[in-house]
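Q: Structure tokens for this one, please.
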Amino acid sequence: MVNLESPLLDPNYRMPVDEVCRLRKGISDFLKEGLEVTDDDFGSGSGIVISAGGFKYFTCTYVLISTLRNLGCQLPIEVWYYQDELTFDMRSSLSKFNVTCRDMEGFVEGRPHGFLMKSLAILYSDFEEVLFLDADNNCVKDPTYLFQVPQYLEHGCIFWPDYWMHSPNNQIWEIFNLPPQNCPEQESGQLLINKKKCWQALQLAVYLNINSEYIYRFMYGDKDSYRIAWMYLEVPYFFIQTPPGSFGYMFNGKQFHGNTMSQYDPNGDIIFLHRNLIKWHVTYRNERLWQIHKSFKPHAKDLSCNIRRHKKTNYIDLVGDVDVVEYSTLIPNLEEACLRALSELRGHPFYQEELLHSYIRESR
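A: Here is the predicted structure, written as tokens:
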């Protein structure tokens, strides 16, 4: 039995005909006009791009970059924000990691929403080849090798799956004149893109996220906007075949609380830990939340992904034909390295000030 229908979407929702026509016309007009492009627009070289606005995501970004450098990653890194989302002290604290902080204000009119910032940061980055990482992602090992894997070199793009499956009833297929599919949703916590090879598709993904009031009715945030853009324009991409797993812990010894999505490289090895449910800014000192790893067995037939809520937090549980492995046998040192980086950051006097300001802003 397969029960992987997303609880976050209504597969039977239907957009009014006039809005469908308006969206289709907008896409057609946009593609006809396009963006003027020169070789300089593609950028050069390879690098990591992160979108990190505000106290919460700055904290995650610091942990991510600190552990990346400790893993020996020498790739240049751009951290994108908008206006006051990163203060001078925040930016200064990242400078020791050889990071370039870039303000989106100089590139767009108005404040882009969080999901849109991701595609814009990729588009405007100085790199031709981009590994985009959500701020709350974490790397198990130096990810530089991903730019050389055969699947990326052939396709110029790698996307990763989410837990959930698309319904063939989702109107997104009809809107984009694509055959209905029962396939995994995309998870956009990591994206590997050669901009020169995928320029028009990337532009379309940006356009779809600009028009989020239409598109997000059929997907959760920006997730599938990339794959839909690539599919619509028939631009090749490689989709990771290994379903994501979940790191978490046993609550009261009975219930699995998955808080971090594990993602795999093309060889089937864990490469990313996307800590998207309990982020670093609300993690206690020395709190160990990666104790157990759950993943679906190869060729599993009984698959279910459940969302449970405890207090203020959602948790994931994978049920059915699953493997359960102790964290320490898979990735013994990463959580400890992340906690050290978090402790180091919290030791800075400016961080205590930012914490106070964040609390006041959220409480008023």
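A few notes: The chain has 13 helices and 15 strands. The chain has a mean pLDDT of 94.
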